[in-house]
């Protein structure tokens, strides 16, 4: 089994089959970045997963996100940049930790009667599908001090769009998945055109600020 295909199977096992759309290029240029202190702190979504935005770098207009899955405690570590395009807000998400360690939780896969075992760091399991540091995008619909409403991409849903219109956005196929190869300028035009299309940005998730003394920004 090729490494990339193995990683996609591993990701499906960790995320229950939901894989965000991945891009070689970022959604932002320097002029598009904005910094919002009210993003910082710990948030909980409607599935009880924890989103902790921390370690801000105001000069680079970025911060760190630690995502923790409520079901099994698996984590992901990412760099986050808030991007403003035509008065719409998006998050550009890219991993900042390599997912594998010498020691860690084992995941086995069987293909063509061959069993393969990969050791995955239990700390950064959600970084697995970013074996190459791909970007992914989140659309923000509401951004208030105590609540964020957002939509995350899902490559299964976007496959429907690409099947109907293969020229909608430049991409390549990687085994049974795809990766966006369009330039930043083309990506920006695409997300603005399809900002309201559920095949690109899926069901809305709601994040509520956790009331943890001393860690959250008002």
Features:
218 residues, alpha+beta, eight-stranded antiparallel barrel, 3 helices, 39% strand, globular
Describe the structure concisely.
The chain has helices at residues 3-15, 155-164, 184-193; strands spanning 33-34, 41-45, 50-57, 62-68, 75-85, 88-95, 105-111, 114-120, 136-144, 147-152, 171-174, 177-180, 204-209.
Structural class: alpha+beta
What portion of residues is helical? 10-25%
What number of structural domains do the residues give? 1
What's the total helix number? 3
Unreliable segments of 5+ consecutive residues: 1-17, 101-118
Shape: globular
Largest sheet: 8 strands, antiparallel, barrel
Rg: 17 Å
Q: How many extended strands?
A: 13
Mean pLDDT: 80
What is the string of helix and strand elements? HEEEEEEEEEEHEEHE
Estimated share of beta-strand residues: 35-45%
Structural notes for this entry:
The chain is of the alpha+beta class and 218 residues long. It has one domain. The protein contains three helices and 13 strands, in the order αββββββββββαββαβ. The protein has an eight-stranded antiparallel beta barrel with strand order 2-3-4-5-6-9-10-13. Strands 7-8 form a two-stranded antiparallel sheet. A two-stranded antiparallel ribbon has the order 11-12. The radius of gyration is 17 Å and the shape is globular. The N terminus is likely disordered.
SSE arrangement:
Elements: H1 3-15, E1 33-34, E2 41-45, E3 50-57, E4 62-68, E5 75-85, E6 88-95, E7 105-111, E8 114-120, E9 136-144, E10 147-152, H2 155-164, E11 171-174, E12 177-180, H3 184-193, E13 204-209
Antiparallel strand pairs: 1-5, 2-3, 2-13, 3-4, 4-5, 5-6, 6-9, 7-8, 9-10, 10-13, 11-12
